[in-house]
Write a structure and sequence with these properties.
alpha+beta, 6-stranded mixed sheet, about 250 residues, 5-stranded mixed sheet
Length: about 250
C-alpha cells in the first residue's frame, strides 16, 4: 500500500548523498588495495634483486703456487703429510696435465653457505667433496682419493669429463655450476621457487623448476653421496708444518 501511494503521488526520492558516500568509500578501498599490491610487488622485486646479487661466480684454475689462504679438500683419511707431498708434486709437474689439481675460486663478493662438488672422469668414476661455508673470494683445491700414496705413473689424475657444483646462497637459493671439459663450456642453473620468480638468470644460465628432469637428475647425483667423509685442511697449516721437511 505504501508503495502504491508513492507511485500514485509520484513522490519518489533518492538519497544521492548516501550513494556518493558509498562510491567514495569503495574508491578509497580500491586505492588502498592498489597501494598494498604495489608495495607487495616492490618487496618481491627488491628480494629478487637481492637474490640475484647474492649469487656466486666461479673460476677454475690450475695453481702452480697455492695462496696461503687456500683450503685443501680431501675426501678420505689421507695423511696431511701425504696431502702436502701431493700438492708439491702437482706444483712441480704443472706442465704435465695428468698431475694437475683442480682449484676452484669464488670470484664474487658473496659467501656460500654450502658447496658440494662432483667431478666425473672419463672412466665414469666420480669424486665428491663438500665444504660448509665458503667466504667471498675463497679458494679451494680438490685432492682426489685415488692419489692416496702419492702421484705416481699408475696413479695419475684421470681425464676429467665434467665438474658439477651444487651450492646454497645466503638467501636460500639453490644453484648448480657445470663445466664440461670436452666442450670447454660452463653454465649456471638455478632452482625456481616462490622467491626467485622475478629473478633473471645469469648470462650463461637458466632457471628451471624443481621438478624439472635435469634438476632432479643433478640432485640425485649429489644425494647419493650423502654420508661420505670430507676433510678440509688450510694450506697455510700444511705449509707451516711440512715445508721445512721437504
Amino acid at each position: 500500500m505504501v508503495l502504491l501511494e508513492i507511485i500514485r503521488h509520484g513522490n519518489v526520492t533518492y538519497n544521492f548523498g548516501n550513494i556518493a558516500d558509498w562510491i567514495s568509500a569503495l574508491a578509497a578501498i580500491f586505492a588502498f588495495g592498489v597501494v598494498i599490491w604495489q608495495q607487495f610487488r616492490q618487496e618481491k622485486i627488491t628480494r629478487a634483486l637481492k637474490i640475484e646479487q647474492a649469487r656466486p661466480r666461479f673460476m677454475r684454475s690450475i695453481k702452480g703456487k697455492l695462496p696461503d689462504e687456500t683450503d685443501v679438500l680431501k675426501n678420505n683419511q689421507m695423511s696431511n703429510r701425504m696431502l702436502y707431498e701431493i700438492i708439491q708434486k702437482s706444483r712441480n709437474d704443472i706442465n704435465k696435465t695428468k698431475s694437475e689439481l683442480l682449484t676452484l675460486e669464488n670470484i664474487s663478493e658473496n659467501t656460500i653457505y654450502c658447496l658440494e662438488m662432483l667431478v666425473i672422469y672419463e672412466d665414469k668414476s666420480k669424486q665428491f667433496w663438500k665444504k660448509i661455508g665458503m667466504r667471498k673470494n675463497g679458494i679451494i683445491t680438490l685432492v682426489p682419493s685415488f692419489l692416496d700414496g702419492g702421484i705416481e705413473p699408475s696413479k695419475e689424475i684421470k681425464d676429467r669429463v665434467k665438474l658439477i657444483a651444487r651450492f646454497l646462497t645466503p638467501l636460500n637459493e639453490t644453484g648448480f655450476y657445470i663445466y664440461n671439459y670436452k666442450s670447454k663450456e660452463e653454465s649456471y642453473l638455478f632452482v625456481k621457487d616462490k622467491y626467485n620468480k622475478l629473478v633473471r638468470p645469469l648470462k650463461n644460465g637458466k632457471i628451471l623448476k624443481k621438478n624439472d628432469k635435469y634438476i632432479k637428475r643433478l640432485n640425485e647425483e649429489f644425494d647419493t653421496q650423502k654420508g661420505k667423509i670430507f676433510i678440509e685442511v688450510p694450506y697455510r697449516l700444511l705449509k707451516a708444518r711440512y715445508s721445512n721437511e721437504s
